[in-house]
Amino acid sequence: MQWSNASKIIASNPEVKAELLKNELEYKLIEEVISARIEHNLTQKQLADLVGTKQSNISRFENGNANPSIEFLKKVALALNKKVEIHLV
């Protein structure tokens, strides 16, 4: 499916749009972690080793099947030479 078709479906379906907005933060965070991992030429296994966790935990996080703690996110950020910032707006 092309993005133009997907965006039409999203725009025409209030339930889909609401679900996407509800999960926007999670999607953005996952995208940022994956991009940083790839930028550092790290596999999920290599990142997991740096974080002190299992590859399967990184995979679950990247697939959106985990609810990570702030502590986990801080460890991931540190391993990727990043930092976690949380803002209420």
UniProtKB/TrEMBL annotation:
Ranges in coiled-coil conformation: none
Organism of provenance: Helicovermis profundi
Domain HTH cro/C1-type residue range list: 33-87
GO MF terms held by the record: DNA binding
Tagged with keyword Transport: no
InterPro entries given in the database record: Cro/C1-type_HTH, Lambda_DNA-bd_dom_sf
Protein name: HTH cro/C1-type domain-containing protein
Entry keywords, A to Z: DNA-binding
